[in-house]
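Good morning C.,

I know you're traveling, so I'll keep this short. The sequence:
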Amino acid sequence: MTIIFGILLFSLLIFVHELGHFVAAKLSGVQVNEFSMFMGPAIWKKQVGETLYALRCIPIGGYCAMEGEDADTENPRSFQKAAWWKRLIILVAGSAMNLITGFLIVAIVNSFTAAPIPQIENLRTGSSLACEGGLRAGDEILEMGGSIVESTTDFNEILQNDPSVTEFDVLVRRDGQQLLLEAVPMVPKEFPANEEGEAGVFYGIQWQTRSLTFPEVIKQSFDDCVYFGKLVWMSLGMIVSGEAGLKDMSGPVGIVSMMSDTVAASGSAAAAILNLLFIGAFIAVNLGIMNLLPIPALDGGRVVGLLLTTAVEAITKKKINPKYEGYLHGAGMILLLALMAIILFKDIFVIVQR
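The C-alpha cells, ready to paste straight into the viewer:
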C-alpha cells in the first residue's frame, strides 16, 4: 500500500507541475503540441484540437511540449514568439503549482488533526529539558533564545538555526505567571518506543494539542510550508559545503522506504495516512523549490537562460537562436538522469543491505 501511495503521490506531483506549465501556456496563447504523463512509448493518446494528450509507460517524469520551445520557428504562437514575461510565467508556473499543492495538502492534514501548540503536555523521562530549573508539564513557551514562539514550528526552527547551541533562556507562562528559565539544556536523545509507539532521536516533548480554527489552519499551514522550504535550503547548503553527500540523498525508492518506516511507526491507519500526506506535502514543496534552482534542464535554469538572452537581445538588437540553449538543457538533462540513476541504485543497495 505504501508503494501504491508513493506511485500515486509522484504521479500527482508530476501532473500538477506539468498542468501548471500547460494552463499558463494556454492562457498566454502559446501552442501546446503535447501534454504527457510519464515517458517512453504511449499506452494511451488522444488528439484534442492542436494538443496531443498522452499517458506513457515509464512512470518517470512527464512533459508539456510547446511549439518552438527549444528551436526557432515561424509559428506566431510559438513559445519563443511570446513576450518574455509570458515565458517567465509559463516557466515558473510548474513550481508554483507544486508549492500550492504542498500548501493544500498540509491544510487538509491540519484540518483533520489536533495541531500541537507550544504548551507542554508531558516530558519523557530522561529529557534534558526536565532538569532542575528547567521546563515542566503545563509550561507555555513564549520566547526562546530571545525569539518569540507562536507555534511548535517556531520552536523547531530556533533549535535548528544553530545546532551547536545547546542551552537557551526560555520565557514561559507557568501557573498564570511569566517566568524566565536561564540556560535550559536542550540536547536531543534517542528514546525507546513509548505507549504510542513513538521512538527515535528527539527532545522528549509531548505538546498539548487542540483543533484549529480556519484562520489558524491557514496560518499554521503557511508556517509549515515555510519551514519545509527552510529545511530544503539548509540541506542544499550542507551539500554545497560538503557536510552532506550522495549517501544522504534519496530518490523515489528511498522516499518510499521512508514512507514505509513512517507507516510502521504510526499508531493507527488514520495516523499513517495523515503522516504520509504530511511527507507528501514536504516532497511537493521540495520539488517546487528544487525545480527553480539555476541548473540547466530545470525550470530555474530555463528562467536564467530566458533573462540572460532577453537582456543580451535588448542590448545587441539581435535574436539568439534558441537551439544553443536547447543543447545546454539537453546536456543538463543527461547529467540529471545519470545522477537519478546513481541515487536509485544507491537506495536499492541500502534496502538490500537491511
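Safe travels,
E.
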